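thoughts on both lines:
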Amino acid sequence: ISSLLKHNFVPSSNKVPIEKELFKKNLLDELEHSLLVFVNGHIADEHSDIKNLPDGVIVGSLSESIKNNSPLIEKHFAKYAHHQTNIFTALSTSYTNDGAFVSVPDGKIVEDPIHLLFITDSKDTKLLVQPRNLFIAGKNSQVSIIEHYVSTDKSVYFTNTVTEIVADKGSVINHIKLQEESRNAFHIARMEVDQERSSNVSSHSISIGGELTRNDFNSGFNDEGSECTLNGLYMIEGTQLFDAHTLIDHAMPHCTSHEHYKGILTDKSRGVFNGKVIVRPDAQKTNAFQENNNILLSNEALINTKPQLEIFADDVKCSHGATIGQLDEEARFYLKSRGIGEEASRAILLHAFASDVITSIKTESVRNYIEKIISDRFN
């Protein structure tokens, strides 16, 4: 974090006005969804649009829910992302301004995704923005949430975000995180997932922005029959640094986890993948998969990958692995022999490489949005 410490960041104290045209390009136009907008970490009601939601579903400002003494906030806020051993979580917990609060009661199904758009417009000020998010899914409920970070310019700022996800019995949470911030920004994020019996949580992370990006993901199973899917795609260039640390803790039997991260690195960019799956002694019948694949498009790009399994049970099915390589020259030659140009053949192969992560996203409009990001990056 030495590059981060070179700057003096100022906490964002006020919301700044922003024209709708500045963030309209970041909206998922094909999607009928509820939109909650934050500007510099503060709720922007004038740009938000909450569609018809099932009775009892809450989509709104975390700070407002805290002011209203919500019992759900008291029960769950800061109960999973412990601050004692993490300086950035401690900073977030001490100086939380606002963030998104999503609560789905028992048995409710939210058909359309909820789009949380976090915009930073720091101009000449080096801002510290600290969104704090809490997502709760009640028993047998279903919800899809898009957590989306963008900026309006190329300025230097620091986003320090903490997200806690609570999945009660039988609930289904589909979470997508898009990080498209300024190439000069710093993005440090922590996500804590707490799962009860037979819950299903999937999280898909797409990262292309930031001078430095650090994503921590931790998931724990509290009862049997739960499933966690974790997919990631990072595309970095220049001198960008992407660092992913994940932990999936199998403490209960009959649970499943599937983790697949892919990276495309060029120029002098650097990537880190440090993933760990722990299978506790009582976690028999665990099914755990973990893999990290990377393509290096230059001789100076660097990836450090460390997939890990710690298994203390004997009746399990677990696998892990990692690959680092370059584009398949035979495949490129084949495409060129069919009249496809150099750049187009390169883009086709990179899109095919990333397709595993993209196709796992259930929301079609989000898939199309990400495919456009890839096309813009490599065409």
Remarks:
- The chain has two domains: 2-328, 329-379.
- The chain has a mean pLDDT of 91.
